[in-house]
Amino acid sequence: MDKYIGMDVDIKKTVACVVTGPGDPGRYRTIATDVEAMQAFLRSERAGGYRTQVVFEVRGEAGWFYDNLEGYADEVVVCNPAQATWIYRTSKKNDRIDARKLAVLLMMGEIPRVHMPSKSIRDWRSLILHRRVQVGQVTGVKSRIKAILRSQGCGKPAHKGSWWKQVNREWMRQVAQGGIEMWRIRLSDELAHLEMMESQVRSTTKRLDAYLAGRPGGKLLMSIPGVGPRTAEAVLAYTDDVKRFSSSKEFCAYFGMTPKLDESGSCRRVGHISKKGPSVVRWLLCESSWIAKRKSPALKAFFDRVTGGQPKRRKVANVAVGRKLLSIMRAMLLTGEMFNESLVGRICAADMAA
């Protein structure tokens, strides 16, 4: 006999509901939210030769729970509540109700599942996101430095070129040390903060480069014009296993690069992209698209076709190129072939003619 176990996990306690079949009102148990208590509970439910399946919602500790509970049930399922809002459309809601709903939906096979990658892949994703935060902090510090200088009438750096080339950085240090005014103290602190943050970004980038060098798909994706290590690693990390996507459309939808669809009767509206999935991948893809369409004649022709001579459609066309890059990446990961400009040109031409 099978047991379907829904777990509503909270910070302090977890409410579990066990159902064995249709019409079963369920049996409830409240346990502490820690791995040892969960393992002991699942071990007891498995006693007697029962086949157990357990489900809980995705959360910050989902990967930790998944790794430590996997051997204590026949199947561990992680649910995506964002794709199951209809589950909670009820006038009554508490931990016991939510746990039973999860158990019943698991029994029915209606749980929207979350793909749970290995710990190494999850750590890779975390470091990619960490670097993005670091880069954002560096940008914020630079903006504050320029704001301080402009408030003192320095609208442009002392030397031509970027604010951040070495000669201008030295000029800013001299300005910061030129007196005891409060704004100079702020400038000195921000310059020191900038150096520290840039050092951290370099260290994180070095670690990411070393990890990417050991991934077989890294050089493959970087053969695409405009795709560098940061874009390649983000796509690889969040793809994990490309074979879990049955089509190019499904692959692009996972990254939120497919348009929303509102269709009823004869009315069909196609809107903006859904923006579901990892935003860091979309951000990097769109950055790569601007470069790719300059370096690849096939992608440039595709970009121009989508733009249609309308400057206002340039951003729309860039997103379309980003989606095309994703489709190309999926094909390359499946076949193991490097970027082929002539083949991409024929594919883009066929898509534009369709």
Account of the 3D structure:
Helices cover 56% and strands 13% of the residues. Helix 5 packs antiparallel against helix 6, helix 8 (229-239) crosses helix 10 (279-295) and helix 10 crosses helix 11. It has three domains: 2-108, ATPase, nucleotide binding domain (Nucleotidyltransferase, domain 5, 2-Layer Sandwich); 119-213; 218-353, no CATH class. The strands form two sheets. It has a five-stranded mixed sheet with strand order 3-2-1-4-5. The protein has a two-stranded antiparallel sheet with strand order 6-7. It has 354 residues and is of the alpha/beta class. The model has no long low-confidence stretch (mean pLDDT 90). The chain is built from 13 helices and seven strands. A hairpin with a 3-residue loop joins strand 1 and strand 2 (13-19). The longest helix is centred in the middle third of the chain and has 33 residues, at 119-151.
